[in-house]
Structures are given as C-alpha cells and as structure tokens.
Specification:
- By secondary structure, this protein is an alpha+beta fold.
- The chain folds into 2 domains: 132 residues, Fructose-1,6-Bisphosphatase, subunit A, domain 1 (Fructose-1,6-Bisphosphatase, Chain A, domain 1, 2-Layer Sandwich); 107 residues, 3-Layer(aba) Sandwich (D-Maltodextrin-Binding Protein, domain 2).
- It is 32% helix and 27% strand.
- It has 9 helices and 15 strands.
- The strands form 3 sheets. Strands 4-3-5-6-7-8-9-10 form an 8-stranded mixed sheet, sandwiched between helices. It has a 5-stranded mixed sheet with strand order 12-11-13-15-14, covered by helices on one side. The protein has a two-stranded antiparallel ribbon with strand order 1-2.
- β3 and β4 form a beta hairpin.
- α1 packs antiparallel against α2.
- The longest helix is centred in the first third of the chain and has 18 residues.
- It is globular.
- The N terminus is likely disordered.
Length: 269
C-alpha cells in the first residue's frame, strides 16, 4: 500500500470519484430507513439490499460511459476489465447498519493503479459527511466552512492510544482473541466504532489505530489514500503491503511498528 516513486496527477480521477459519490448518495440516501427496503441474503449469508445494487449500478454506469478502458471491482457485481487501472467500489459499507436504520454506513470509491489505491472517496450521506484524497494532494473532509485538511494524531505511546477493533467475533473467527485481549490491556481506550467510519476517525486524528479481519479489497481500498495522505500508515495485520491479505491494520504511523510488535511478541501456546 505504498506510493510509487513516479508522481502522477490524479486530479481528474478525483473529480470523477467525487461525482461518482454524488450519484451514489442520490441512490442510497432515499432508501435509508425506508419501509419498503428490499433485503436478501447472498451466498456468504451477508445481507444485500436493493440500495446496494442500485448504488453500485449507478457508479458502474458512469464509469462505463466516461472510463470505458478502466477496470471495475465492486462488491455486488464483481470484477470486469483491466486491473492496471481499476475502480474499486463498495456501494454501501455497513449494510447491516443501513438495513437497521443506523446511520454509520457509507459508499467507498477508490482508483487503484497497479494494485495501489491512489484515489479514495468515502461518503456517509446519513451523517452529511464526506472524505477524499489523491496521491500527493493531501486528505480532506467537507465542513460548513469549506474543505479541511486532515492529519492523523501525534500520539506516540500505546498507553495513550485510542483504538477501534471493529468486533470481538471478527477477531475470534480469525483466531486472534489473544491479540485482542493484549491490545485492550495495553492501550488507553478500546472501542468498536465499526466499518469505514473507524478509518475516517483515524485520518481525522481522533483515534490512533484500526484493525480488522475478513476484509476484501473493496472494504478498505478507499481508506488507504485517505489514511496515507493524512500521515498515517496502512498494511495488512502482519505488516505486508497488500490489499488482498484479508486483514487491515491502520495507524497514525508513529505507532505502527509498536502495534506490530505487540501482536508479534505475544507468547504462543
């Protein structure tokens, strides 16, 4: 999840990603907390709603028209086209929240070049919030006073760190319960804010670490540029630089190696 040495101008791609987020919000927000929301189970027993499908389709329609040579990877309709320039989409991250009327959900849109996310947009319309970043241009959020540049925290001690672990069951299913308990005992504050919102809190400097398991590329790709451009660091749980390791560890950068050491140095049965 590192930035290639050769700088590239992603301004036009970011502009497009922001318009894609506008189109997504137009589909998703009217269906939020709707009495007639259609919900079904996918093969993996996760939920999908009519809003998930309509939102991803709206994004794909624009990409097909404006970027026909780019590839697409989306949660609901899979992959198509090239992978050298690939738009990675999670139409509604936090579908469980969405279908229960909890406003902590959002659309995630990323552009990855040769597997590295270089543009990221996260829109959480039920909260009236949006975040975005592109390589070399910083990480930003919209406020009532205009765009505000983001910066991760400067916390440099695990004893003072505030972290989001996503869910106990997720860590347990990954066989990481000892790591979770060690984390809770070591840091100042542990909470499960959940889903994409945790990464945005990290980029804003409000928490200092996010870690989760059983994640696909579309679950985390948009967060990578936003965290990175805010000064943070994002890897897999074992420290490898990849989107496909099914885990994510995002930190303020200062504490990244300390968290990796905490997990690595645990006594093993």
């Amino acid at each position: 999840m590192t930035v290639p040495l050769a700088a590239t101008d992603f301004h036009a791609d970011l502009d497009l990603a922001l318009r894609l987020a506008d189109a997504a919000d137009e589909q998703s927000l009217p269906r939020f907390d709707a009495a007639d929301l259609e919900v079904s189970l996918k093969a993996d027993h996760s939920h999908v709603t009519d809003a998930d499908l309509a939102t991803e389709q709206a994004i794909r329609d624009i990409l097909h028209a404006e970027r026909p040579d780019d590839g697409i990877l989306g949660e609901e309709f899979g992959a198509e086209g090239v992978t050298s320039r690939q738009w990675i989409i999670d139409p509604i991250d936090g579908t469980a929240n969405f279908l229960r009327g909890v406003p902590l959900w959002g659309t995630m849109i990323a552009l990855a070049v040769d597997g590295v996310p270089q543009v990221g947009v996260v829109s959480m319309p039920a909260l009236g919030r949006r975040w975005w970043a592109s390589a070399g241009d910083g990480s930003w959020t919209a406020t009532s006073d205009g765009a505000r540049r983001l910066s991760v925290s400067t916390v440099d001690s695990l004893d003072e760190a505030s972290v989001s672990f996503q869910s106990i069951s997720q860590w347990a299913q990954a066989g990481k319960t000892p790591e979770l308990l060690a984390l809770a005992e070591r840091v100042w504050r542990d909470r499960a804010y959940g889903d994409i919102f945790s990464y945005m809190l990290l980029a804003e400097g409000r928490i200092d670490m996010v870690a989760e398991f059983d994640v696909k590329e579309y679950d985390i790709a948009a967060a990578v540029p936003i965290v990175r451009e805010a000064g943070g660091r994002m890897t897999a749980f074992d420290g490898t630089e990849t989107l496909s390791a099914l885990s994510a560890l995002a930190t303020n950068g200062i504490l990244h190696d300390s968290f990796l050491s905490l997990f690595r140095d645990l006594p093993r049965a």
